[in-house]
Every structure is written in structure tokens, then in C-alpha cells.
Amino acid sequence: MKVTVLSREAAEKMIAEGRFPDKTAVISFYDPAIKRIDEDYSHIDYSGVCKNVFYSELDDLDLEVLRRKGYTYATYFPEAPAIAEFIYEAYDRGDDIICQCEYGQSRSAGTAAAILEHFENMGITIFTDYRYYPNQVIYHKIYDELEKVKFYHNSEYYYAADKERIKTHIKSFGLDESILADYDPENLVSVAALRSDLERRFSECGSLCRNSGQITEALLRGEKSFYASFTIDKMYPLYDRCSWDPAGVMSHIRFCEEYIPVKMWFRRIRYFSINKTCRLTKAAIRRYSRGLLPLKSFSFFGRLVFDEKRKMIIAVPLIITNMQEY
After folding, report:
1. Separation CA 166–CA 304 (nearest Å)
2. What is the pLDDT of residues 160-189, one digit of tens each?
3. How many beta carbons lie within 10 A of that of residue 244, not counting itself?
4. What is the DSSP annotation of 156-179?
């Protein structure tokens, strides 16, 4: 996906010369301040060249002036979640994206940096380009919303622990229970938002492992229980000794010169959902665990407990998203 930053002048010139590219979506910012001065001022009309356009009438404000203008970080730029959805829709279609604002330097640059950082870890290419002065509030708000969308973008199936179970983890970690106020395990958007919030808070405290290297470091420090967020894409079924049906999955973490098993039992999972809102029946769960819907990969967030006696890690899930089948 190619991401381009344009000013109003450059975009209008491209349209006038008939050079507007095919398979391109546009995020177009325009200025309320100019509109108050010039009654005829409006956004660029892309209707003749592009059908996928997101218009945002937004003042170009930095963090330090938000309060002076009557905003807070939460109330400024309320379109960020909708723009994140728009970006993923363009990504799914295989479209390129043009980010356009009045001068092509701040709001559009902040948006482009967020897109590039999220999909390619290349947001720095915008921040180090002398032509741009990315609006960092816009950058952070769009990037955070893209991270939330990522958690449910490919989730046909997901798992979310109930509110009371998550509350015990929050209390033990010393977090305010109010972060669960809007949590609904039957709404995948709500689940993804909570996961993103918890990961951010745990990361800020240095208490979240995001890859096998960080898990190894935690084990070397002697930690027996810690939180982790990572993708499992190589796994093997664990069988119930009574029925010999697959009852869980096992993966491995490399630790020094050996591999430590990471086991997660499906019987510990009390709640599966499908298509964002519909709960699976018990029969469907049994069908799922018996391998008729075998897992290819999933994104895990929860607690890892190291069993020193058996030299293995028990994975205790709180939220699992992007559960992919073979």
C-alpha cells in the first residue's frame, strides 16, 4: 500500500491535469478557521476522480494548545476511530492512500506516519523528512485506533474472558476498575478496545512481554508469572486423556539452549464468539476442540505462569483475537 502526502494545491493540480491515480482512497482535511473567514471555502471535490474519500473538518492543533482552544485529548479529533476503519477498508481493497491537508505538512503527514508505522514500522520516514511537521496528536490517535482495529480485523472467532475474571487481574495489578465500565465480551470492538488499553497500561509499567525474547528475559530474571501479548502461529494439539480429543494447543518458547513448552487448554476457555457478537453453542465448542475447526494461528493476551517443576509455561488467556483456521 503506497501512502502519499499532498497539499491542497498539489491535489487540485493533479485532478485538473487528469493525473489522479486509480485504486486510491483519500483522507482529506480542511480548515474550520478558513471557513469562518471565507464563506465559499470548502473541501476539495474529489467526486469526479475518487469514490472513497474521508473528509475531516479539523483545526491543526498541537497538544499544548488544545486546552486553550477548548479541547481535551479525548474530545479533539473524534473521527479517529472512523478513519482507522476507513484505512483498513482501503487496505482490504488493495488501494493506495493519499493523505491531504491544506499545506501537506502537518495533519496529512501525521496521518501518513501513523499508517506507515502501523503497517510497515516505517513512520520514522515521515518524521525525518524535512518537508513535514507531523501533527503528533493526530499521529497518536490514528495509530492507537489502527492498533485496536488490528485486534479484530481478521477475527472470525475470538475469546474474551468475563468481566469478573478480568477484574481480578486488574485488581492484582493495581489498576482502576473503571476501565471495565464499557467492556462487553459479546462485542468484539469493545473487547479489542479493552485489550489495547490493558496492553498500553502494562507496557507503560514495563510489565508486558511482546515476543519470545522478552519472555526469555523475564524467565532469566526469575519471574514465575507475568503478562504477555504475542501471536502464536506454530502449535500442536493437546489431547484429553479421557476422550483423546484435542483439548488445547501447545507451542514453544526458546530459552537459552532449550525449548520450553507453552500449553493452553481449551477447557480453561469458557467463552467463544463468532462474527463479533454471536456466542457459540456448547456443541459448537466441542466441534471446535475436536479439531473440525483446527487453529492455524491466534493473537494471545493474558498471563503466563512458569511451572518450574515441570519446566513448562501455562498460558492463562484473557483475550484471544484473530483466531485463524486452516
Report:
1. 15
2. 888 898 999 888 888 888 899 889 887 888
3. 8
4. SEEEE--HHHHHHHHHHHT--GGG
